[in-house]
Amino acid sequence: MAHPNAAASDSTLRITGVVGLVGAAFPVIADIASWSLASGYSPVAQSISALAVGRSSWLIDLGIWTFAVGIVAVAIGLRALRLGDLGWTSGALCLFLVGAAAAVIAAVNEYAGRQNQAADIHQWCFYALALLFPVGLLLLAPGLKRLGAKLGTLSQVLAVVWLVLGPLYFFVPNAWSGAYERAFALLMLAWLAAASALLLSRRARARAPLT
Fold first, then answer.
1. Distance in angstroms (rounded) separating the CA atoms of residues 102 and 67
2. Closest CA to 5 of 183, 117, 144
């Protein structure tokens, strides 16, 4: 007899898991490849957004778009598992909004660092993403624990680390701001990869109906 919460189809979990893995891996490739396209660029001292102006803009924007699609896919996959009620749904919604914020950032990235309305939109979406991600993890953690996944505890730890150390970004010396930002980006991508792998796992698919 199927578990009462087993509402996600096997195909949905597979598709969202694969898309999520691509969304976690390609942004790293795009970022590293962009360094050689931007003249005099320092990944340690300069932000990811600084790559969005010039020859490397198309590649870094593609990386951000890929991440946006990946995390939205994972949000859909996790929501389909129905491992909780309002908290679980709200957590999946937070991830969906993270993807939406990332998509807007990619759309206006050409204007990053400039004094105009698009730059303001970029900044506010950055703040929204930085807040929604840890909140989403905290809301999803109880359901992930019920699934028996270590990702539940890791999500709580990552959310706390993010909320405590994230604001320090604004106080990091300029010579290290790029490295600090990338460290947090890697944490986000690592979580996305882990969540994608979970969707592809037997543990998750065991909750899907045999259709």
1. 8
2. 144
User: Does residue 147 lie in a domain region?
Assistant: yes
Nearest one of 183, 195, 206 to 136, comparing CA atoms:
195
Give the tens place of pLDDT for each residue, 56-91.
Answer: 788 889 999 999 999 999 999 999 988 878 999 999
**Is 2 part of any domain?**
no
Q: Model-level pTM greater than 0.85?
A: yes
- Phi, psi torsion values for 114, nearest 5 degrees: -100, 155
- Show the domain range for 99: 10-204
In a domain, 1, yes or no: no
Q: Which of 93, 121, 96, 97 is nearest to 109 (CA)?
A: 121
What domain count does the chain have?
Answer: 1
